[in-house]
Amino acid sequence: MAKKTYDLLFKLLLIGDSGVGKTCVLFRFSDDAFNTTFISTIGIDFKIKTVELQGKKIKLQIWDTAGQERFHTITTSYYRGAMGIMLVYDITNAKSFENISKWLRNIDEHANEDVERMLLGNKCDMEDKRVVPKAKGEQIAREHGIRFFETSAKANINIEKAFLTLAEDILRKTPVKEPNSENVDISSGGGVTGWKSKCCS
Amino acid sequence: CFYCGAVFEETCIFYGLFYVLVMEFGEESSPALAFEKDAFELTVEDVYDISYVIGRDLLKISSTGEEVSDLQFRIVRVLEMFETLVNKYNLSLEELKMERDNLKSELDRIITESSSRQGTQTAGPNQLVVDLTDPNRPRFTMQELKEVLQERNQLKAQLMVAQEELQLYKSGILPHAEPAMVEVDLDSPAATDSPATVNDAKEEKTTIGKLFSFRRK
């Protein structure tokens, strides 16, 4: 094994309706690029990005889920291991906003109890097609006590800020301890060592 | 009446019919043939033929001076009832035939529709009929997809680890032997001839380190 290149490993998860831009949000963050062609995610995919926060190298393993209902059983099995979940909707798609409560219920049912949640209203560059006012996003986030950002993967608005904020929130409640030497763990369930020990002690 | 002897037009058994009958059968046709027919094949025209023949016979009797006026009225009444019954029977028969034809065509329509539907329609609630000739038909189970995705992600993770390791190696060791990438010593296996220095000892433990160790000769 080569020398460790990070101090902490955080597992994040992106969820939300099909077509809201989860993959694009992730692609912008990991590769700083944007692709207009829509390719529906099959089941589950992931990307890795290492960031530095408070002098610590944090490896973010970000799981990108398919929004389509038919992949539901595959995607929900990945909720358990997530330390942070980004719930994405599309500000030009009212239905994707209405479904937020459904996605929040999924989190309650399948994720760890102390998972860090965040709401993103994506495609905020398309002001002329907006159907969900920013205030409505802020309101629902407030009701559930979670952070909210309006983002644009295309125009690169708030993408990095959202991921770094979520990582900071997780870091804040992570006990200071030496990271174990495990590398990228791609298993679906099982949770995270060190993370789980904190919430279950 | 010249034929039946009725005094009033209303009582004549040919009232309203006579001219039609004469025109239809002419001289040579024989109204008496209606008597030979099967009862269920009688038409209302046959009833008029029968009436004509009976009327003619009544005329013969009355011409001999017999008093047949009451009988004459009763016969007319019976013939009228006969006419109504035959008329009604034929109309009902026609209606039933039409009804039968309608039901037949409706049945044919339903049969062809249901047989053409069978390929694409759902077989029942929550069931889907799959067209085996469709190259894009669903073939794999959710479990199979889950396993394939897990393997894909596992390999992706391994590739990332390998890339990271390579990056470490490049940044840490390569500066001393930059153009050495193509130098491969085919005579001796890479693992056997590595006089590793103390500094490199740690790196040699990785597979990639071993594979590339020949470059430092």
Chain-averaged pLDDT of chain B: 72
Residue share in β-strands of chain A? 15-25%
Class derived from helix and strand content of chain B? mainly alpha
Q: Can you count the helices of chain B?
A: 6
Major β-sheet strand ordering of chain A: 2-3-1-4-5-6
**Molecular shape of chain A:** globular
Biased composition (Polar residues) (chain B): 112-125
Domain RH2 (chain B): 137-206
Main location (chain B): other
Keywords (chain B): Cell projection, Cilium, Coiled coil, Cytoplasm, Cytoskeleton, Protein transport, Transport
What does this structure look like?
- The complex is a heterodimer of chains A (about 200) and B (about 220).
- Chain A has about 200 residues and is α/β, with parallel strands linked by helices.
- Chain A has a single domain, classed as 3-Layer(aba) Sandwich (Rossmann fold).
- Chain A has helices at about 20-30, 70-75, 95-100, 100-110, 135-145, 160-170, 195-200, and strands at about 10-15, 45-55, 55-65, 85-90, 115-120, 145-150.
- Chain A has a six-stranded mixed β-sheet, sandwiched between helices.
- Helix content of chain B is about 55%, strand content about 0%.
- Chain B has a domain at about 5-115: Methane Monooxygenase Hydroxylase, Chain G, domain 1 (Up-down Bundle).
- With about 220 residues, chain B is mainly α.
- In chain B, helix 2 packs antiparallel against helix 3.
- The interface of A and B includes residues 5, 46 and 188 of A.
- Chain B: This is RILP-like protein 2.
Summary tags:
heterodimer; A: 201 residues; Rossmann fold; six-stranded mixed β-sheet; 7 helices; disordered C terminus; B: 217 residues; 54% helix
Brief sketch in words of this structure:
The complex is a heterodimer of chains A (201) and B (217). Chain A is an alpha/beta fold.
Question: How is this fold's topology laid out?
Answer:
The complex is a heterodimer of chains A (201) and B (217).
Chain A: E1 8-15, H1 22-31, E2 44-53, E3 56-65, H2 72-76, E4 84-90, H3 94-98, H4 100-110, E5 116-122, H5 134-143, E6 147-150, H6 159-172, H7 196-200
Parallel strand pairs in A: 1-3, 1-4, 4-5, 5-6
Antiparallel strand pairs in A: 2-3
Chain B: H1 18-25, H2 44-63, H3 69-117, H4 142-172, H5 201-204, H6 207-212
Helix pairs in contact in B: 2-3
